[in-house]
Amino acid sequence: VEGQEADFIQSSLEGVKPVDITELLEEFDAEESKYVLDLLAPQVGAEVVIELEEDLQGRFLTIFSSEEIARYIDCLDSDDGVHLLNLLSISRREEVISLLENEEKAGHLLDLLRYDDDVAGGLMAKELIKANHNWTIKRCIEEIRKQAENVQKIYSVYVVDDHDKLLGKVSLKRIILADDNTKIADIYDSDIAMVETFVEEEEVVQIMQKYDLDALPVVNVRGKLMGRITIDDVLDVITEQAEEDIQMMSGISADVEEDDTVWIISKARLPWLVIGLVGGLLGAKFISLFEADIALVPVMAFFIPLITATGGNVGIQSSTIVVQGLANSSVFRDSIFKKLIKTFLVAVVNGIILAIIVFGIVIFSTSDQTIATTVSTALFSVVLLASFMGTITPLILDKLGVNPAIASGPFITTANDLLGLAVYFFVAHQLYGL
Amino acid sequence: VEGQEADFIQSSLEGVKPVDITELLEEFDAEESKYVLDLLAPQVGAEVVIELEEDLQGRFLTIFSSEEIARYIDCLDSDDGVHLLNLLSISRREEVISLLENEEKAGHLLDLLRYDDDVAGGLMAKELIKANHNWTIKRCIEEIRKQAENVQKIYSVYVVDDHDKLLGKVSLKRIILADDNTKIADIYDSDIAMVETFVEEEEVVQIMQKYDLDALPVVNVRGKLMGRITIDDVLDVITEQAEEDIQMMSGISADVEEDDTVWIISKARLPWLVIGLVGGLLGAKFISLFEADIALVPVMAFFIPLITATGGNVGIQSSTIVVQGLANSSVFRDSIFKKLIKTFLVAVVNGIILAIIVFGIVIFSTSDQTIATTVSTALFSVVLLASFMGTITPLILDKLGVNPAIASGPFITTANDLLGLAVYFFVAHQLYGL
Fold it and tell me: Domains, chain A, ranges and CATH?
């Protein structure tokens, strides 16, 4: 790109898939990238831009003129177009929309801008093929011919009545196999899944995954066909959700990536570190209550990390199992009571085994029966309490409408550290008779 | 189900989607479920069984006769059929295959059984529609008519030469829009993605997600079309991988679910708890080296949990960012050197902020300058070291071919606990001049 030989770039990018060009551009700076993009056909350029990471898209949009953005959006499906518009300021949005050549698309975009991007209305695209139930297959094929240019992947033709109310769908396969004069009304499948515009994206994902759907029609409250959600968009939602949950579990509080700046990454990591710090300081305050004990029996201090680490590990394990159970929600899940009983039994099994191991090793290496008893008793209690906390916290958060994955992270670890210390020093204080 | 009124069950399940019947059955015991399944048409029953969780499927297969299993497999796509066969013993597999009515399917299944289930060959189904490049659209539609019964979703027609070598594909949309006498050779798209049978499922997922594919053809080393992988199978792989990574991060060593028995869950949780325990015991051993110091300055013990918790949190944050970076692999990622520099800078920023906070609070509450200096110096060093460990461990594991997600879990926490203790007591010992 240094030499900027336009011909060379053009010829070498010919036939390369847009997403691969995107990967290349992510290595360039904005000016270089714009130079390359200007050399590409608008259709290809638009697909390259839409595949870029969101922060890069934002940077690009600032150096493009409104005309250029409009030209790209003209080439994109409405769901991708609205995604770009959402990155612009409101006044610039209107300018871009007014510059669109395709007036139908402009209308679609204005329509879609009304929805939040985490509900069905925000995921859907307006491009789809619909047919009136009174049409024949022949008429339907003509219509496909007319509409097909705007619709990349057809999957199914949606069947509507005279008021655009969604009745069902006909698969392309069925259209190919049917006789030209068959009426749509006679062959369409009326037993189909659909969602209303305000349904949350998590539910959309669940429905599409459960019923193995490639596309899901979206209707308004009166059943009018508004758009459709395709499987590729849902795939992205699933991947994002999984990444988000994992970041939440690791105590990273914003959606960061390796490529972000040092400052953005530091800022995203700091909140939970500070919370952990406050937990640690509370722990220090708590241990200080037993200063006299420790001065007399310093061996007490040796097992602090053992107790806190086990509490943390057990808590995270428990909460992860509960969180995943909540995610695979089903009507007939175990009741909370049954969950707690089970958690309790698992904790008892693990707690007894760990306590025996620790008792054996401590007795063997120190021959100090008091500390062996203290550590193993405290460990057993901590496993029980940490399991209980790890189970109950995500359930409570879920009831409160908070993403329960947050409970599998530093939150549980910090809480269980404190809990573990309390149990340990309480037991030690009693057993040593101090 | 108690009363077992067959008519009532049959009528109430009519029109219910198979996956919903599956959810119902998961609440019943095997005998009750078999009673219900026997009342359903084989086609519906087969789909209900394939949606069951794997351990339930295994239990069902033991109470079904080989004839019944064969009848179900006759109704299933080859990829689902082979999944059921894989749950049977080898001798029973052969018996079931010999009982299949559809001989073509029997051949398909024998073919698919050869592949591991985590490579492209194990994900693919043999059902697809292919057309010779010399055919006309008319001939192609006739062929679709013939083959369509076996293929649930068509997506594209694959174009092959006389030796079954994959040349490209034609979308159904294109077939509908083309003239009857057009030759396939003139309209097919030759620039398509394909994978060989031995490609790992992770790579299959990446390709399909990157290029937004609904179906991906699978070829053998000589380019012969062997089968195709559809997006719904890939969706399941993605979800499974995400769940697996999260479980690995939480120190759960086998794929367990809330519904599993107490013993299975306990067993899956124990290994990492024991490793954490051993880490804790090593920590105790280490602290015991400073027994005299603690007896003199018990305040040293107060901040043990603070140091270990921060080390653990920082380590998990770092490793998560690295692991997610590895997952979104791209040719042009930052070099390892650049990653380490960045990690170092982030650690310095966070370390300084945390150290200042801790110094302030400790000085304010204890007026003890030595302990404030000790804790903040140790904390800063621990943040640096834990970041380094959290970054380097997943990179090394990845190079060794181990799933790097394992490094984001108890492994890092345990290692960083020990590292944190070492730094802390070393610093304390120096500063107190003991």
Answer: 6-110 (1.25.60.10), 130-237 (3.10.580.10), 262-431 (1.10.357.20)
pLDDT of A333 strictly over 70: no
Nearest CB to A345: which of B247, B262, B270? B262
More confident residue, A120 or A232: A120
B273–A313: do the CB atoms touch at under 8 Å?
yes
User: HSE-up of B362 (CA within 13 Å, CB side)?
Assistant: 28
> Between A211, A266, A317, which is nearest B350 by CB?
A266
B420 to chain A: closest CA residue:
A305
CA distances from B221 to B160, B206, B224, B297 (A): 15, 20, 7, 71
Beta carbon pairs, A and B, within 8 Å = 329
Nearest CA of chain B to the CA of A376: how many Å?
11
Residues in CB range of B234: below 8 A, 6 or more apart: B123, B204, B205, B208, B209
Residue of B nearest to A175 (CA): B176
pLDDT of A365 above 70: yes
Q: Percentage of residues in chain A with pLDDT exceeding 90?
A: 34
Residue to substitute from B23, B25, B253, B265, interface A, most A β-carbons within 10 A: B265
> Which pLDDT score, from 0 to 100, does residue B328 have?
66
Contact A305 B421 (CB under 8 A): yes
- CA nearest to A17, candidates B200, B210, B219: B210
Packing angle of the helix pair A78-86, A90-99 (nearest 10 deg): 140
Average pLDDT in the A68-84 region? 90
Closest CA–CA distance from residue A90 to any residue of chain B (Å):
30
H or E stretch at B37 = helix B30-39
Q: Is the model more confident about A166 or about B174?
A: A166
Report the residue from B153, B288, B301 with minimal CB separation from A294.
B301
- Contact at CB, B283 and A270, closer than 8 angstroms: no
Name the residue among B153, B251, B354 with its Cβ closest to that of A316. B251
**pLDDT tens-digit map of A280-289:** 999 999 999 9
ipTM above 0.90, yes or no: no
**How many Å apart are CA A355 and CA A351, to the nearest integer?**
6
Out of A209, A280, A288, name the one closest to residue B306 (CB).
A280
What are the tokens at A213?
Answer: 């759907």
DSSP string, A239-303: HHHHHHHHHHHTT--S---TTS-HHHHHHHHHHHHHHHHHHHHHHHHHHHTTHHHHHH-THHHHT
Closest residue on chain A to B330 (Cα): A23
Rounded CA-CA distance B264/B255 in Å is 10
Which residues in chain A are closer than 8 Å to B319, comparing Cβ atoms? 250
Beta bridge partners of B347: none
Mean pLDDT, chain B, whole residue set = 87
Least confident range from A149-163, B128-142, B220-234, B364-378: namely A149-163
Contact A309 B279 (CB under 8 A): yes
Query: What tens digit of pLDDT does each residue of A138-165 get?
Result: 998 888 888 777 787 888 899 999 999 9
pLDDT of A394 reads 87
The whole-number pLDDT of residue B333 equals 57
Q: In chain B, which residue's Cα lies nearest the Cα of A372?
A: B281
- Comparing A156-165, B34-43, B85-94, B422-431, the range with the smallest average pLDDT is B34-43
Interface probe, candidates A173, A289, A411, chain B, greatest B C-beta count within 10 A:
A173
Give the integer Cα–Cα distance in Å for A185 and A29. Answer: 55
Comparing CB atoms, the residue among A252, A257, A301 nearest residue B301 is A301
Nearest-angstrom CA–CA distance, B62 and B65: 8
- B198 — pLDDT class (breaks 50, 70, 90): very high
Q: In which residue are the tokens 């499948």 written?
A: A189
